[in-house]
Write a structure and sequence with these properties.
Length: about 260
């Protein structure tokens, strides 16, 4: 029987685990710059950490493992619940009765769906089975579920059918979730297919409300997306850091 002990991870590798656990994702270039080492050195660290099952290697960077570090969907509903409710109430207050609305996926967007249930004569399109369930028994809501393939435990609908269907409609408002913010102000998420749906919906909307609590300001992800600055607002519960405020250029709406 092989009783050889595994070599412990290095101090730098342990710090990489800490950084990625806090942020959700980090690029090789950023880690190399932070540690003052070559990208190849960081790449070797990432290969080791991926092999140990501690992090997950991606093209150009490293992230937390879906099955271990990242919160499960049921847990996400309980995190920052008060902040999500305030954000949802504020976003819903900005959507008039009679509007045509697209709802994205995510627990904060689901909170917005609950607030919208009290509206009158809304036309709601969604790629979220969870949001559709919330609104399905409200007769004042004209509900349309965008077709597609179900992706993940959050009941997200994605794929060519989803994108093709979205292109046929025009929305007054889109309510979009996100997982993090890049340093240049671009929003970020983990799944390229879900981001494709977000981007397509924002392009079809007169105005987009990107909703998320302040914990997202300290996180990064994998895939970037953005909207037109003249038709975009970030709805959150706390004043963002100065660098985010500077990039957003007055587009933040704070839910008191």
């Amino acid at each position: 029987m092989d009783t050889q002990m595994k070599e412990p991870i290095t101090e730098r590798q342990a710090r990489i685990v800490e950084i990625v656990t806090q942020q959700g994702f980090a690029t090789i270039d950023n880690l190399a710059r932070d540690f003052g080492v070559s990208a190849q050195s960081v790449r070797r660290d990432i290969i080791r950490l991926d092999a140990e099952g501690m992090l997950q290697r991606f093209h150009g960077g490293v992230g937390v493992r879906e099955t271990s570090v990242r919160l499960g969907y049921a847990e996400k509903r309980t995190v920052a619940a008060d902040a999500k409710q305030r954000i949802a109430a504020k976003a819903a207050s900005l959507i008039p009765d009679g509007s045509v609305v697209f709802l994205d996926v995510g627990t904060t967007v689901e909170a917005v769906a609950r607030e919208l249930a009290g509206k009158r004569r809304l036309h709601v399109f969604t790629a979220s089975l969870a949001a559709a369930t919330i609104l399905s028994d409200h007769p004042a809501i004209d509900l349309f579920v965008i077709g597609g393939s179900v992706r993940g435990v959050d009941g997200s609908l994605v794929g060519e059918t989803t994108l093709s269907t979205l292109s046929r409609f025009r929305f007054d408002y889109a309510v979009i979730g996100f997982s993090g913010i890049d340093r240049d102000g671009a929003f970020m998420d983990y799944d390229i297919e879900k981001v494709g749906v977000k981007q397509a919906a924002m392009e079809q909307a007169g105005h987009s409300f990107v909703v998320g609590d302040s914990s997202k300001f300290r996180k990064s992800a994998i895939v970037r997306f953005s909207g037109r600055p003249d038709s975009l607002s970030l709805v959150t519960e706390m004043r963002p850091p100065a660098e985010v405020l500077e990039v957003m250029q007055g587009l933040c709406i704070i839910a008191e």
